[in-house]
Model the fold of this input.
Amino acid sequence: MTVEERLEVRLAHAAGLALAGTLHPPRLPPPWPVMLFVHGSGGLLRWHRRYAGLLAAEGVAVAMLDHFGPRGIRRTVTDQELLSSETMARDAHAALDALACDARIDAARAGVMGVSKGGSAAWRAALRRFAGPRRFALHVALYPGCETRYHDMATTGAPVVLIVGLADTYTGHAPCFDLAGALRAGGSEVEVFGLPGAMHGWDSGAGRWSHPSGVSYADCRFVEIAPGRWRELSTGIEWDAHDLEGRRRAVARCRCLGVAGGGCAESRARSDAILRAQVRRHLLG
Done:
């Protein structure tokens, strides 16, 4: 296990709310590259720490924050509207600014990775509209939701890696291949890796699981048709960005209830290898 240090990040975009978490330094002298890990709908879980060990072995520090607890959220599995991936992307940039104040961290070699809802935040953090004064050097999204397209998809230019399970019925995978094209057009180098037979959460080490009340947006297609104006394509419902109830009405029409997933040692090994290769190329190269 890696050594843990307490980490706190204050969020200017959330009235100074403080997110608590941990920093896991590698056993090498600083300065260190760093990877920010963003959790999914289930919150920050014990098994997520495996990524601290995996990346510490590469000489990379890992920062992990609890995006839910300070907001009074336990998890968002049954209501994804409790906290948006957009807000979590802004959290990520606030964390990058905080990490840059640590003299041991090389902020020019900072990456962000996330799983599920955290993966959705990780690719959004590559968009200029959510970025702060600094940019991440790498974005890695594992089984993210890819159902949203913004009016302006301009990116910071940082590389984006999407790793999707071809048997994932929770967030789905087909929209991620289309998303890759939109992010490339926005200015980023993008790679998409599809893992045959991999279900949602292939890296967890857990057996197969299901949640009958879990919400899936896999059939939704949210498109910002003009700045601040949204449409869900399968239903044609439109709403303005400030109209949260309007969005909830659209979500209620396109969402599906009942989600499932499961760990897979083979998919996890392949995913880990992809992650290590990308880190070596973009943060250590």
User: Anything to note?
Assistant: The chain has a mean pLDDT of 97. The radius of gyration is 18 Å. The CA atoms of residues 50 and 87 lie 25 Å apart.
